[in-house]
# Entry
Amino acid sequence: MKNIYPVFFTKTDTVVLVEVPDLEILTEGKDMVNAVEMARDAIELKCVSMEDDGMEIPLPSEINSLDVNSGTFAEDGTTVVSLVDIDSGEYRRKIDTKAVRKNVTIPSWLNYEAEHAGINISRVLQEALMKVLNVQRNF
# Structure
């Protein structure tokens, strides 16, 4: 799932505090670049977790409907609202690298040929699925 969420960034003397109101996320970054990275990572993790739990992921609010003065960190510094793009599918490919066992049935003659050619059937299946699904390995 790709989307863009509005995020409150509050600059303090030491860090940038981050709030994602639509997903009830609070985090922080050491500077603005890091704060955006932390926001993206937190949003993608929350979306992947919600997908795994079968929960509906809230749609992003319109940026114009948000009031920076109502944010959790409004009194801690200067707050701005910005948009952060996410791609939970890409995030999942980066973090979910565990192997899953699947039984695959192929004709005996094809198995014989693959074994004698030294072909890793599991690897070929992975590559074929990635090609059919038009996705890439990100690790």
User: Anything to note?
Assistant: DSSP finds four helices and four strands in the chain.
